[in-house]
Amino acid sequence: MPRLSLEALIEALTPPAVPSLSHARSLCTMLATHTPTPRYAVLSPIIASLSSAESPPLLQAAGYEILAAYWAHSGSAVLTTADRLSCLSLFFDPAVPWSLEVWEARFHALYAIIQSGAETVEMESDLLKVLRSWIEGAFEGLTRREQPPSLEEWRERQSSVRQLTDFLTTLVGKPEFVSRLSEEDTMEVLKLWQRLIDRALSLPPEGFPSSSTPASPINEGRASKATSPSRLPLAHRRNLSSLSIPQTAAPRHPADVATEAYVTYLATRLTALAPHYLQFILPLLFRCLAHYSTPLPRIALETSPPCQDPLEKRVTDTLRNLVSGPYSSSCTKLIKDFLLPPKTPSWTSAQTTVGALRTLRVSIREALVNRLARAFITRETAMDYTPAGVPTRLDLEREAMARAWSQDEVASWDLLKFRGVLCRAIKAWVELPEDSEGLSTAAREQVLTEAASIVKDVVQTLDIRDDEEEVDDEEVNAVGDILRALVAYVQHMT
Prior knowledge:
- It is a single chain.
- This protein is mostly helical and about 500 residues long.
- The protein has 2 domains: about 5-270; about 290-385 and about 395-494, no CATH class.
- About 60% of the residues lie in helices and about 0% in strands.
- The chain has 20 helices and no strands.
- The protein has helices at about 5-15, 20-30, 40-50, 55-75, 80-90, 105-115, 125-140, 150-170, 175-180, 185-200, 215-225, 255-270, 280-290, 310-325, 330-340, 345-380, 400-405, 415-430, 440-465, 475-494.
- Helix 19 (about 440-465) packs antiparallel against helix 20 (about 475-494).
- It is elongated, with a radius of gyration of 28 Å.
């Protein structure tokens, strides 16, 4: 069979002709190299017909592949913003859900249209709508309990979320792109992460291909109303140019996928977001931290960093940057707010409070370890200085030395400044009615356990001090006040 010309292929595929998959693929191949390039108006009816919701998936994919080949070969020299907007409208049809056969072709077509983000003028808001819709569509299948996807589809959906998130993050990392976004655009992206994380954190670890952490006690309590667990924590892209991420990547729990997407976005976008977004950003980070939290080691100057889940570390680092950075004051106020239970407490609010307490605890531990480093250096060098005043004969880790003489970025994160709010918060959680709807005993006790752990860290610091070091009476009194508030729960239960 002789090879058809470009004109013949176009004629054979133009409606009302019945499209052929082989013809569509031949047209795609030819458009990648053919010169001169046909006008987009000539191809528009073909692409619209092939990519419509009524077409079989393979024909839909072929339509998007034609679109990608055309735009990649034509470039911006002959194509206008109006053409881009016309093409972009092809991606908004809600009747075309995420599809195993089609999603990648659609994505590559979109990528070609906007030239890796270089050609997005007047398209920013619409482009974000497309990406939000696709990310949520891909993620929806991962949370489906009835008729869950096959292992192949699971991996594809996971890869799809990763690629789309990476691309969205690349776009919002461009100053010229975000300068044309409205506050509503930014908020809608943040709401996307909230919806994904809400769905993911409400799911048990069972029944999924993989899970990086055990079930969260709060989630367990939500499901079974179990008593408080003994352990502390509430744990649970292919590159556009190289397609380097294998499709056989290990399947992950939806919570892992959603959390990674969220912190990936924040890593690029956080510094440019206005402070008023923190009241939306922090609760999600608190919940993620509570979900992945692992027990912290006994506080000591020589303590090695705990073995953390990679996502726990990323969430912790994100929060650390916030509370020790230019937003420290705003973060302090919000942490205090989230320590208190809302009028209608739930497992979600308990999870948020545990994450806020863990964030406070980590920050206080940083200040306590710095204190230990300074005390150690002072004690060991009291009798042995160089003429320059630098201690000698010290076998210390460089990190410990840096702690001792660094500017204390977390100086404001000490127990005394949170004494009052911790006492009020503990009292409020203790006095919640036993039959509070949506709040299990396990969730309540997890809040109180994390609060008690803050006191434990302070007491351990006092225990390892030198006998000659003075004790801050106010700090001791603060410990006593918080302990009395915690003991009230034991009395309440007897």
